[in-house]
């Protein structure tokens, strides 16, 4: 079978990693790259760096990876849909829900595979966590907490921390339990002198009643990527920086010391750190998208409708922070279609 012909537009920090994976992917040939700013990381190899999406399409593509700044996602994605080219667009899907809805509709109408690069879904720790939650190993789920903080990324200029980073947590939270957000309340701060927010604290609730809490910033000197899920039988901690998953079980042995039992509440049980395979998330994401284009069953891609739902929640977070209110999500999109 002939290899799929892939293109890549956007040769910046993320684009260089996409190029590396595309070149090593079975059944795929990277045949064209584009970036009006050139090739700062020298990833083109022997390929001509095209100036725009139209020139890249002319090279003859089956699919294209879009790793440009968010502001250009809508324009580029619509051009690809019009040309009949499947697309994997980096998150967020677009700068706003209106553009995201246009993209989702265009790819659906054209019968094309459109996906969003929410790479955390492919983190081995979160994939193992989701599987265990779906198997009922935690019992009823009470709360999901995420913390995503670190130094300011110089690569980001067109969006704030909500759409750049918090969209990871919005998507993974709804996906890991299979339930959409129904409300959010948030506060933001602006400390870097930019137009966009640098820190957000969000409290939310999912349709199944799960309470969520998200702390996201790019003002911290240390880097942290943690997801904690608490339920009837204990708590899971997923460290997505290191792809580690740990389970803290509720204890089955009663605490004889009454004062200590009152102070601690739920008793401490066994702690298990799981040994899990750790493939590179970006490679897993690319393999899933390739397989979806080939029509293979049970491929796990982030659809554009799911990407749209995440952008809608992100906009609700910003609305809540601006107005000081709790915002309810009117449309509850299912995270599994």
Automatic annotation (TrEMBL):
GO function terms (MF aspect): nucleotide binding
Signal peptide: none
Residues annotated as domain Gfo/Idh/MocA-like oxidoreductase N-terminal: 5-118
Domain Gfo/Idh/MocA-like oxidoreductase C-terminal: 132-329
InterPro entries noted in UniProt: Gfo/Idh/MocA-like_OxRdtase_C, Gfo/Idh/MocA-like_OxRdtase_N, Gfo/Idh/MocA_Oxidoreductases, NAD(P)-bd_dom_sf
Similarity comment: family membership: Belongs to the Gfo/Idh/MocA family.
Protein name listed in UniProt: Predicted dehydrogenase
Organism, scientific name: Jiangella alkaliphila
Taxonomic lineage: Bacteria, Bacillati, Actinomycetota, Actinomycetes, Jiangellales
């Amino acid at each position: 079978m002939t290899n799929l012909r892939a293109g890549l537009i956007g040769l910046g920090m993320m684009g260089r990693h996409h190029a590396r994976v595309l070149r090593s992917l079975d059944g795929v040939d990277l045949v064209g790259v584009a970036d009006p700013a050139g090739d700062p990381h020298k990833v083109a190899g022997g390929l001509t760096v095209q100036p725009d999406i139209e020139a890249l399409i002319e090279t003859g593509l089956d699919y294209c990876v879009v790793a440009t700044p968010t502001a250009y996602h809508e324009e580029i994605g619509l051009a690809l849909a019009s040309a009949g080219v499947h697309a994997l667009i980096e998150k967020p899907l677009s700068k706003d829900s209106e553009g995201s809805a246009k993209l989702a509709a265009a790819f659906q109408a054209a019968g094309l595979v459109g996906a969003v690069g929410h790479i955390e879904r492919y983190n081995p720790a979160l994939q193992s966590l989701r599987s265990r939650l779906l198997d009922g190993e935690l019992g009823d789920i009470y709360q999901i907490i995420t913390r995503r903080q670190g130094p300011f990324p110089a690569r980001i200029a067109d969006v704030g921390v909500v759409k750049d980073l918090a969209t990871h947590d919005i998507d993974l939270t709804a996906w890991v339990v299979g339930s959409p957000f129904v409300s959010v309340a948030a506060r933001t701060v602006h400390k870097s002198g930019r137009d966009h927010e640098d820190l957000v604290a969000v409290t939310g609730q999912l349709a199944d009643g799960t309470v969520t809490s998200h702390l996201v910033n790019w003002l911290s000197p240390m880097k942290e990527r943690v997801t904690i899920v608490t339920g009837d039988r204990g708590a899971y901690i997923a460290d997505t920086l290191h792809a580690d998953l740990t389970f803290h079980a509720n204890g089955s042995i009663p605490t004889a010391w009454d004062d200590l039992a009152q102070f601690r509440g739920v008793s401490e049980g066994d702690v298990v750190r799981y040994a899990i395979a750790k493939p590179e998330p970006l490679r897993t994401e690319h393999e899933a998208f390739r397989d979806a284009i080939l029509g293979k069953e049970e491929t796990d891609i982030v659809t554009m409708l799911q990407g749209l739902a995440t952008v809608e929640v992100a906009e609700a977070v910003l609305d809540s922070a601006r107005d000081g209110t709790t915002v309810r999500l009117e449309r509850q999109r299912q995270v599994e279609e």
